[in-house]
Amino acid sequence: MNIAVLLKQVPDTTAKITISDGKVDESSVSKWSMSPYDEYALESGLQLKDATGGKLIAITCGPERAKKMLTDAAAVGADTLIHIPDDGVTDSTHVQKLLAAAVMRFESNVVLCGKQAADTNGGSTGPGVAELIDAVCVTLVSEVNFLEGDFTTIRPSNSGSEKVIVNGLSVFAFDKGSLELRRPNVRGIMMAKKKPIESITSSDLGVDLDSSNVIMNSQTPPPEKPAGQKFEGAEYVNEVVSRLRNEANVI
Amino acid sequence: MNFTIIAETNGDSLHPTTYQLIGAAASMGSNSTVICPNGECASEAAKINGVEKVISATGDCFSVFDGGAWASALSSMCGKMILISASPNGREIGSRIAAKKGIPIIQDVVSMTEGITVSRPIYSGKAMESLTISGSAVISLRPNAFEAALAENDAPINIIDQSADVRISIQEAINKASERLDVTEADIIISGGRGMGTIENFSHLEEIADTVGAAVGASRAVVDEWGMPHRMQVGQTGKTVTPSLYIAVGISGAIQHLAGMRSSKYILAINKDPDAPIFGVADYGIVATWEDAIPALKSALSDLQS
Amino acid sequence: MRIMAYEALDFYDVDSLLTEEERMVRDMVRDWVDEEVIPNIEIACRDGVFPDEWRVALGEMGVLGAPLKGYDCPGLSYTAYGVICRELERGDSGLRSFASVQGSLAMYPIWDFGSEEQKNYYLPKMASGEWIGCFGLTEPDYGSNPGDMITKAEDMGDHYLLNGAKMWITNGSIAELAVVWAKLDGVIRGFIVEKNDPGFSAPEMKGKHSLKASVTSELVFQDCKIPKDRMLPGVKGLRGPFSCLNNARFGISWGALGSAQACFDSAKDYAMSRIQFNHPIASYQLVQNKLSWMLREITKGQLLAYHLGKKKDSGTWIPEQISLAKMNNVDIALEIARVARDIHGANGILDEYPIMRHMANLESVKTYEGTHDIHNLIIGRHITGIQAFTREA
């Protein structure tokens, strides 16, 4: 079984984000990490690999620095490491096309990814790639199992959660679950060092990166929070709750 | 311009976000065509101001949620600009329709103006991005970021039957008593301190937590002296949390507690002592006893939910 | 999912010089310390226990005996070993002591001076953490002066008989084996004593105010009978134990920085949050002076440790260079802990903060593996050629 896992390297979620010249300043990011939801996908992929004896293909579309993340994935058991340089990529449709092409090139039987990346917070990649490869997609899953030729997974439902069974080529997009990504060990790290990373470009994949009709105007710091407001008396609760919704947008 | 809006329901009626999508379109000076998957709530949709027509999309393909099947069934009925809620299902259907049509999707938009220029939060809200879209696209709107349209209309409803391959089937429902979230996972946390009086009074905080899907936290004093479980402790020797909203009830705000929750996006403090240090870090502070404030908070939050 | 990843002070980007392997090892240990050690260390310290789960985890991660090659040992660089020690000691010096003793003091002598049979028998079990080792050199009356030790081994024909006692032995009571240095016909030799050998006991030393999350023991030999094949054939004299100590001291020169970084991190965080006279205390000049001094010493110490790691890996080191690094880095770490406690004010005495635990631990670290003063004299002898340890020539 070929298990494709789509990974993205993002600024660590605890890292400070600084803006300069209307753009997020990547050079000031102190730490880059695997996007947290992708970790769940990777762990699930490794468990599927352990259970079925398959091969795990870790794929990322990103700049040079993203290769380190692939080596980290190798340290916990990824077999094949694919780096798609992101030159010429200007939006998520490009990324989806590249990942879809790579997934098909490696004859993947199943594709796992995080529900959304911690930087763009979009969530389009899993379903978008599924559409491009004509696969069924289940999102917000917490675990994936393979039994007698079928994939089953658990996803939320109105009454809690439900176990669903899917047919054919599938994409699973992971939410946080109880499966934490396993820790590497020294042996894994030393073997990972030797594992080659294959770089495959958009032209190798036969993907044409056309111009996008979305232009990024600017990236700015979030709107200033209003200064702390203090209210005397419980009669102000309603006022505060409505500010939490309308001003702060947190409920 | 006419926006295609994909409706979402909430039990027997339209989800408030559908009204917000239509309102957003209207604020751009546009009418909407609303597509109701599975034909649900089509007549309700027809009453909303700004709706030019409603398409009631019926078919067996809508009986289970399979994003691919839904997108396949809905896509051909969509126009050039498509609005959908940035709910989990909305994001998924939107992504598949966009990929199918070869158009971009912009997710979780919080404002939209002529151009079409949109803005959306990135890096979990640590920054904002402004984008301009020229041409066809799918846009998902963050719930509660746009004003809802009113309902004084009477638009026509077309029923169109659709079919698509459904590749997901439900094997079993797992109705486990939904466990309350842990403080490290929740986006909203309501924490109690000594000011709550007794451990039994925490049940009031738990009710609020269940109303909004929050986690319940506790200060060290409550854990050490009243036996609250240690995993609920927020602070220097407990958990460090970064929710979007931290509600501190009856917590004075000693430095050890602040160490654990200072990085919350927004802090609401409720304390009867106007000089409590917690008010120094709170975005919103209410000087009141918990006995007065908590029931009011509970009813205000329940009202919001409905 | 990690909530608040620790960012270690690295003002001159010394960590950017690490190889990818060293960086990955660092991150593996750092994450484990964040997730498993930091949340549990204060209880372990209060209870005075070394959690067995940590032994298991260290074995699973494969960091025990880090720089040793072959026999299922990790085979990492000495720099990687230093990094491991630093990350462990950021958690607790007692935790790092466990790893130092296991790797540098118990596994290393078998690896360097043992027979093939001994290496094949003991090393894999120790690398996996299945068997814990300890190092018996120091005696109640012979600390800085190990050469005059009185623990004796007698050749009885078909076995050795050991008599004597060792003291201040990390891991002693929980160890499966001890590498014991004793005089056989007046010459110091190494012997492997296993816990069930008759006449051997390892009572725990209680009542410590330092290294409380570490097990410290006496090793007592009362006509202790050990088989003949337990002597380490490859070394005679003090060169044996001193080779082990050099390796451990190297690890400690990095480890102390971890402790210093933890204290600095806490002090900085506290100073930024603590408001007095309407301002965070980090805005006051005296506090900034202290933080600035800490940064200065940590940065110097990092460069010392890193360069020493390179010399160790290239085989171009001398023991005096290790003495300098151990002495300097532990000395400044202890001072940093004290100044950090000062910055924390009264809060600094609570185990809500790690400060006084580090401070108390470092008192031991300053004393063991060669006291501060001994290392000072080692350097003095190197400079002048004149030994100043004893009155005699």
Helices and strands in order, then pairings?
The complex is a heterotrimer of chains A (251), B (306) and C (393).
Chain A: E1 2-7, E2 9-11, E3 19-20, E4 23-24, E5 32-34, H1 36-52, E6 55-62, H2 67-75, E7 80-85, H3 92-105, E8 110-114, H4 125-132, E9 136-141, E10 143-147, E11 150-157, E12 160-166, E13 170-174, H5 186-194, E14 197-199, E15 214-220, E16 229-232, H6 237-246
Parallel strand pairs in A: 1-6, 1-8, 6-7, 7-14, 8-13, 9-13
Antiparallel strand pairs in A: 2-5, 3-4, 10-11, 11-12
Helix pairs in contact in A: 2-5, 3-4
Chain B: E1 2-6, E2 9-10, E3 13-14, H1 16-27, E4 31-37, H2 42-46, E5 51-58, H3 67-75, E6 81-85, H4 88-101, E7 105-109, E8 111-113, E9 117-122, E10 127-133, E11 137-141, E12 157-161, E13 168-174, E14 188-192, H5 202-212, E15 215-218, H6 220-226, E16 245-249, H7 255-261, E17 266-271, E18 284-287, H8 290-305
Parallel strand pairs in B: 1-4, 1-6, 4-5, 5-12, 6-11, 7-11, 14-15, 14-16, 16-17, 17-18
Antiparallel strand pairs in B: 2-3, 8-9, 9-10
Helix pairs in contact in B: 3-4, 5-8
Chain C: H1 20-37, H2 41-47, H3 52-61, H4 78-91, H5 93-113, H6 116-127, E1 133-136, E2 152-155, E3 159-170, E4 177-184, E5 187-194, E6 200-201, E7 216-227, H7 239-273, E8 275-276, E9 279-280, H8 285-314, H9 319-344, H10 355-367, H11 372-384
Parallel strand pairs in C: 1-4, 2-4
Antiparallel strand pairs in C: 2-3, 3-7, 4-5, 6-7, 8-9
